[in-house]
Amino acid sequence: MPPPPPPIEEQEDEEWLLTYADAITLLMAFFVMLVSFSKIDLPTFEEVMAGIKDEIGKTETVSTTTQMKEELEAAVFEKQAEKVVSVQKTDRGITIEMAAGAFFFPGTATLRPEALPILESMSVTFAREKFKYFNISIEGHTDDDPINTPQFPSNWELSAGRSAAVARYFIEIGLHPYRQSVIGFADTRPKFSNRDMTGKAIPENQSRNRRVELLLNAMSRKEKGEFSDLLLERRIKDEEQKRKDEEEAKRQAIQDKINEGSGGDETPQNGQ
After folding, report:
1. Strand blocks (E) in 35-179
2. Are 134 and 217 contacting, i.e. CB atoms less than 8 angstroms apart?
3. What count of other Cβ atoms lies within 10 Å of the Cβ of residue 142?
4. Cα-based angle 192, 193, 194 (whole degrees, multiple of 5)
5. 163 and 242 together in one domain
6. In a domain, 46, yes or no
7. pLDDT tens, 84-133?
8. Are 75 and 207 found together in one domain?
9. Which of 6, 114, 152, 227 could cross-link 158 (Cys pair, CB 3.0–4.6 Å)?
10. Are residues 121 and 185 in the same domain?
11. pTM of the full predicted structure?
């Protein structure tokens, strides 16, 4: 009796792979488009990550941005400056709005003496280790009343000059220049209408439009690298200068001892 014929193997239908590959390709293209059109909002990202950590780890976590905002608010409250300084967190980052009338003499970029302790208190927060990788953009704003002085031919120079004055003070008390940028907007970014429908000035609104704003944002990875290199370079220079000063002090101390010893051995000579 002849053996039975071998079973016929059915070929697997792999047409589903084409549909699967098409779906994966479409999904990849979709996410690429999302990334290309999205605007990375670092403060919001930090808040989302903090929320995820809180849910997963069941521990209380606060984003660095939120911590900075809270500490700045505390610094402003401590100086009793909440009427002339406001701290907010928006999609732009942390914004500190300072009333120009409380910080500058009218028509000038000269800081008032009473404004310096407030700026110094804020700079202490900026300089803290956990906040050192935040950029500080200083933006000056004026009202629409024109100015024309030898120092400030227009509101552009006045707004930029006030921003620069704040930056110079921060640098004088130790904040690194790399972190700071200075911008003058003149009267191009009013928060309130400077004038009514008839063109008459609204003094209250003009006063509120005269302001300096500090915008704080986390550095990018590239900026962090550049800033870290600058900090390392500065530390090396400081250590080298310290070493030179110590050597000079030792040399001077030895020379002083030599001078003291030689002075005691001197005897007057009779002139002939």
Report:
1. 85-90, 93-99, 134-141
2. yes
3. 27
4. 110
5. no
6. no
7. 999 999 888 999 999 999 999 999 999 999 999 999 999 999 999 999 99
8. yes
9. 152
10. yes
11. 0.71
Q: Which neighbouring-strand residues pair with 184?
A: 140
CA atoms of 246 and 252, how far apart (whole Å): 10
Is 85 within 8 Å of 118 (Cβ atoms)? yes
Half-sphere exposure of residue 147: CA atoms within 13 angstroms, side-chain side: 21
209, 229: one domain = no
Rounded to whole angstroms, the Cα distance separating 233 from 240 reads 11
**Domain with 172 in it: what CATH number?**
3.30.1330.60
Asked if residue 114 lies in contact with residue 105, where contact means CB atoms within 8 angstroms, the answer is no
Pairing of strands 180-184, 134-141: parallel
Shared-domain flag, residues 226 and 170: no
Q: How far apart are CA 132 and CA 124, in angstroms?
A: 10
Helix (H) or strand (E) holding 215: strand 211-218
User: Which sign, positive or negative, has the C-alpha torsion 170, 181, 220, 178?
Assistant: negative
DSSP-derived 3-state class of residue 76: helix
**Tens digit of pLDDT for each residue in 28-85?**
777 777 766 655 555 555 555 555 555 544 444 568 999 999 999 999 999 999 999 9
Amino acid at 140: G
